[in-house]
Amino acid sequence: MYIELSKGQSPVTTSEMKSYMKITSSNDDTLIGSMIDNCVRYGEGYTGRDFSIKSWKLLIDTFSSRIHLSRMTVDTVTTIKHLVSNVLTTVSSADYYLKNNASNSEILLIDGASWPTDTDIREQAIEIEFATTVSMDQSVIESAIKKHVSYMYFNRGDCDVGEAARLSGAMNDYTYYRIPRV
Question: Do 61 and 112 fall within a single domain?
């Protein structure tokens, strides 16, 4: 289970969005901010990538030879902790390394190292904290979000966030950065 610990600044601000849509009134600022959040969340979910720098916690039950991180692009693994007699214990960072692939990231053991064997046998006994970074052309993502939000704003009540992405042309931009799912 992934838990978002912190998120960075949205790629598009409310004032940038209003300027793009040529809106001068502040009457709909809350609505526009909400639409930006929804479109960013949709785009991140569709592409499998974070549109801003974020911190995450992954909870898993057991160690494996390859621990897959499905968020992209992972910048650093902050800590790996596991429960020993119901107390969180940190795994030495000298025992593992981060490998970024084209469509995912993995935590692998250094040659000769092994994962701890004294981990409590229970669900979510291992906590992995890591940070992601943005590895795509931000101007393309900003453009997609602006198209997406603009379409939703001017067609309120006529479509949902997914349909708006398709009809606005934002889906083409999102698809370019989408991580293929097998």
Answer: yes
Q: Is residue 3 part of a domain?
A: no
Same domain, yes or no: 42 and 79 = no
Smallest CA-to-CA distance from 75 within 42, 46, 43, 52 is with: 52
Q: Specify if 20 maps to a domain.
A: yes
Query: Tell me: the pLDDT tens digits for 142-151?
Result: 999 999 999 9
12-43 pLDDT, tens digit per residue, is 999 999 999 999 999 999 999 999 999 999 99
The pTM of this model reads: 0.79
Range of the domain at 62: 54-132
**Same-domain check for residues 164 and 109:** no
Q: In the prediction, which pLDDT does 76 show?
A: 95
In this predicted structure, what is the pLDDT of residue 135? 74
